[in-house]
Design brief:
Strand content: 15-25%
Radius of gyration: 46 Å
Shape: elongated
Number of helices: 9
Distance between the termini: 41 Å
CATH topology of the largest domain: Outer membrane efflux proteins (OEP)
Low-confidence stretches: 1-45
Mean pLDDT: 81
Largest sheet: 4 strands, antiparallel
CATH architecture of the largest domain: Up-down Bundle
Oligomer: single chain
Order of helices and strands: EEEHHEEHHEHHEEEEEHEHH
Helix content: 40-55%
CATH superfamily of the largest domain: Outer membrane efflux proteins (OEP)
Strand order of the largest sheet: 4-5-7-12
């Protein structure tokens, strides 16, 4: 069941925590309830997302993560295939046929139409005894690809966590800047009231009041722009999380402080060495190189002979009647002429059994299978002699691939070293920028308080006061910017050091 509320010109929602009564003040409102289908749909419209929730949600729903998980599943299947190559093959076949048509009767020699049935059964097994260690290396390759897929998935999760953290911090920054603009405008509005009184009393000229009102108008424009920036940053974060409900998406009010990191006091060389051991970019490149070496050995195994063992069992049965010969007990033999002597013409006689043919029904099914079975077993060997240089060229091709992956591994290490060094320098620079911004803010705060005191007693004009307040506001915004910039760059450096994205603490 879907319930849709249309609310127009809504003023304010006042929620009491003590009695759980919601009071809604509005000028005009129209509420329409539309009940559709039979299910109840609930949406978390008022949910405020924490950074940890955003990271977990992004990792769970990201399409790249799902694709990488499919690659792991596929590598598991490949590993199962490689294990299956060590096992014997077993195949069975069975057939049953009927023959209908004109057939000569074996007892009478008379042609007649009959239908006969016959069946045959076969069971065969085979196993590779020796194949140049190809099956063993195929299993090694499958395990390497499986590990590489896992590394790739972990890398994708780290990248997503970093992207989400950057988007989340951007929202916090825009909200912090919006709050600065709102607070400054509140001070300006209070100054307008005080200046109005001083102008009315003739202490200050009317131009000072106009100047402050102009500043207030400019600040309100800044507030509008800041609200737009907040909205844009929230939409960008929602898009990163694949959340389509932009209007109701918001983050929790979290305060992130600049905290000491495990990297405090560590040199850039320590971070680089740790990154070479822990970063997935290098691990993936190492696995790719190992796979290339294994492919080379697999291609070389073709030079070796392949020895297979086999075993076959077959049998058959039929319903065709059996023909047997019976010796006449009363006259067991008959004498017949089988030739003559050429010189004398004398006949050559021979006694042969006096038999007659008798048609019997077919033997029982099981008895026929037992009597007609046959077994064959043995070994066969095959060895390539010449295949148009295919094997040799494949070996050369894999050798080139080994060299290519060695270069890629070396390049991955160099790129990682450069990236870590850049991240280290960026983090140091961001920390110095934050410290400088904080010092500037403290100075501008004192100067602003001094200017405000002088303005309240009429010792300075509105222009000088507005300029002091502007410098104070800009320094506050710069503190926010440098703070979140330093936090993010510090997290990038921690990832290089080997701290998993799921353990990043803000």
């Amino acid at each position: 069941m879907i319930i849709v509320f249309f609310i127009k010109n809504c003023n304010i929602f006042n929620i009491s925590k003590t009695n759980s009564i919601m009071t809604i003040n509005m000028k005009k409102f129209v509420i329409m309830c539309l009940f559709l289908t039979t299910g109840l749909t609930l949406t978390a419209q008022n949910k405020n997302w924490t950074l940890q929730e955003c990271v977990a949600y992004a990792i769970e729903n990201n399409i790249s993560v799902k694709q990488s998980e499919l690659e792991i599943e596929n590598s598991d299947i490949s590993k199962s295939d490689a294990i299956g190559n060590f096992l014997p093959s077993l195949n069975g076949s069975a057939g049953n046929s009927w023959n209908t048509g004109l057939t000569q009767d074996v007892t009478t020699g008379v042609l007649r139409n009959i239908t006969s049935r016959s069946s045959s059964y076969n069971l065969s097994a085979g196993v590779t005894v020796f194949g140049g260690l190809r099956n063993h290396r195929e299993l090694q390759k499958a395990k390497m690809l499986q590990l590489s897929s896992q590394y790739n998935l972990s890398k994708i999760k780290d990248d997503i966590a970093l992207f989400v953290a950057n988007g989340y911090l951007q929202v916090l920054l825009t909200k912090a800047n919006l709050q600065v603009a709102i607070e400054q405008n509140k001070v300006t509005e209070e100054q307008i009231l005080r200046t109005q009184k001083l102008v009315d009393a003739g202490v200050l000229p009317a131009g000072d009041l106009l100047e402050i009102k102009a500043v207030s108008a400019q600040e309100k424009q800044t507030i509008v722009n800041s609200e737009s920036n907040v909205r844009i940053s929230l939409v960008s974060l929602a898009q990163l999380l694949l959340i389509k409900d932009y209007e109701n998406f918001d983050i929790a009010e979290q305060e992130f402080s600049v905290i000491l990191s495990e990297l405090t006091g560590k040199s850039v060389d320590e971070v680089i060495n740790s990154a070479k051991v822990n970063r997935y970019e290098v691990k993936i490149a190492e696995q790719n190189m190992s796979v290339a070496h294994t492919d080379l050995e697999i291609s070389k195994s073709i030079y070796w002979p392949t020895i297979n063992a086999f075993f076959n069992y077959n049998t058959r049965e039929t319903d065709i009647p059996r023909i047997s010969s019976i010796i006449d007990s009363n006259n067991p033999t008959i004498t017949s002429q089988i030739g003559y002597v050429g010189a004398t013409g004398e006949a050559v006689l021979s006694e042969i059994p006096n038999t007659s043919l008798l048609e019997n029904s077919a033997k029982p099914f099981g008895e026929q299978l037992s009597e007609n079975d046959g077994i064959s077993y043995g070994l066969n060997m095959s060895m390539p002699i010449f295949n148009g240089f295919s094997t040799r060229n494949n070996v050369k091709r894999n050798l080139v691939n080994v060299k290519r992956n060695e270069y890629q591994l070396e390049q991955a290490k160099l790129d990682l070293e450069s990236s870590v060094y850049q991240a280290f320098v960026d983090a140091e620079g961001a920390k110095k920028s934050y410290d400088a911004a904080l010092a500037s803010f403290e100075s501008q705060e004192l100067a602003y308080e001094y200017a405000q005191t002088r303005f309240d007693v009429g010792l300075t004009n509105s222009f000088e006061f507005s300029q002091s307040k502007l410098r104070y506001s800009q320094s506050n915004i710069e503190v926010n910017r440098s703070k979140y910039d330093y936090i993010f760059k510090l997290k990038v450096l921690e990832l290089f050091f080997g701290i998993p994205a799921t353990e990043l603490k803000f």
